[in-house]
Design goal:
Layout (H helix, E strand, L loop, with lengths): L1 H18 L38 E5 L7 E6 L2 E7 L5 H10 L4 E2 L1 E3 L5 H13 L1 E2 L2 E2 L8 H12 L4 E2 L6 E4 L2 E5 L16 E5 L2 E5 L5 H9 L8 E3 L11 H7 L3 E4 L12 H9 L3 E4 H4 L2 E5 L4 E3 L30 E4 L5 E3 L13 E4 H6 L3 E2 L6
Parallel strand pairs: 3-5, 4-6, 5-7, 7-8, 12-13, 13-14, 14-15, 19-21
Antiparallel strand pairs: 1-2, 1-16, 2-3, 9-10, 10-11, 11-12, 16-17, 18-19, 18-20
Helix pairs in contact: 2-3, 3-4
Length: about 375
């Protein structure tokens, strides 16, 4: 009986030792590689990065609109257009925005109401929906200004004249108004100057702001340093003072100007200033449309700077004498019911002349319509 109890105890002891895994408790020899199953592991949690902390791309398109100005700014699918060029550029601006996939403009900004900045915006308002229009607080006695304001009113677009220091959001970017309403002066002095920020990158758009407006911005004490400066008034000697350049200290400058224009723009003195400060130069008359892309820490460009500092006249430029919209050509053209072109005849191609709409060529261009390549030669 005692022998049976002893055997039963030994059997239970063997079963207990097997269940406890005696083998795994064996000592590890010196220098032996530790199997993965024997290593003690601690999971490392990757740091969480907030979406808003990730740099976002912003693109600034400096459009080639000849002797005028138009800039498209894009951030996270949001769009801002600053000026639209002159009457002859309206259809190009509209076509360019369509190519970029623009369906709605978050901001339409008129720097001021001169024709070479405003005409293309009338076309944009006729084609794209707009969330908000920003423009300076003064009135202009021209048919083009009336058309612009009529377009804003009829479409019920919120309109305001922002004040110095007011800031707005565009996707991941922001922009702030740097200029102030002048006590007196011509239309150029009313130009809305804005500074666009994307992370550490910045760009200042000046419209036709004169040296007097630049001096006021300096006196305001606001931070004016920037990576890119859009040179005021197409490089005229009336803008881009030494003091303003020394405050903005841009790495690159862009001049929107027409090739072989009659005003001598860009001015030789302005270009000499840019060259002496070793500021990279982009010119629409020599390079066409250029695009600057910001990732929040640096700008990259669609092409290298031309750095052509050869200018036209030297000294203060004469007043511009561009043709007023009131006395522009009264040529009549036709548009089909659903077409995107205007025609010199009411029955071009498959057009139904009974449904063709007649209008002036100016109205057609301001509406963003392009000329038919067949009948408008």
């Amino acid at each position: 009986m005692k022998i049976k109890k002893l055997l039963l105890s030994l059997l239970l002891l063997c079963l207990f030792a097997s269940a406890c895994g005696v083998k795994d408790s064996e000592p590890i020899a010196a220098g032996e590689v530790i199997p993965e199953t024997k290593k003690a592991t601690t999971a490392k949690v990757a740091p969480q990065i907030k979406k808003e902390d990730v740099p976002q791309d912003m693109r600034i398109h400096f459009l080639d609109v000849g002797q005028g100005l138009s800039v498209l700014v894009e951030s996270q699918g949001r769009y801002l257009i600053y000026d639209g060029g002159g009457q002859g550029s309206s259809s190009y601006v509209v076509a360019y925005l369509r190519e970029q996939g623009v369906e709605k403009l978050d901001y339409v900004i008129a720097s001021h109401y001169d024709a070479d900045h405003l005409a293309g915006l009338v076309g944009c308002l006729n084609v794209f929906s707009a969330e908000r229009v920003l423009a300076p607080d003064y009135e202009h006695d021209t048919k083009l200004y009336s058309s612009f304001m009529k377009g804003v009113t009829e479409r019920g677009i919120p309109f305001s004249s922002p004040v110095q220091g007011e800031t707005f959001t565009l996707g991941a970017a922001t922009f702030t108004v740097l200029s102030a309403k002048p006590e007196n002066g011509d239309s150029n002095d009313y130009s809305l100057v804005i500074k666009i920020m994307n992370g550490q990158n910045s760009c200042i758009l000046t419209g036709d702001a004169s040296a007097a407006s630049e001096a006021e911005m300096i006196r305001s004490g606001r931070e004016l340093s920037c990576d890119i400066l859009s040179i005021g008034h197409h490089g005229s000697a009336s803008s881009t003072s030494w003091d303003f350049l020394e405050k903005t200290v841009p790495e690159a400058a862009v001049i929107s100007v027409g090739r072989d224009n009659s005003y001598g723009h860009p001015d030789r003195d302005v270009l000499e200033k840019l060259e002496s400060m070793e500021i990279d130069l982009y010119r629409s008359d020599l390079q066409g449309t250029v695009i600057a892309t910001s990732n929040g820490s640096e700008f990259t460009w669609s092409e290298a700077p031309c750095n052509d500092y050869q200018g036209g006249d030297s000294g203060t430029q004469p007043a511009e004498t561009s043709v007023s919209p009131e006395v522009s050509s009264s040529l009549q053209v036709w548009k089909s019911a659903s077409g995107k072109k205007y025609h010199s005849i009411p029955n071009c191609g498959t057009m139904n002349p009974d449904q063709a709409v007649q209008m002036s060529e100016e109205e057609a261009q301001n509406s963003g319509l392009g000329a038919c390549s067949k009948c408008c030669r």
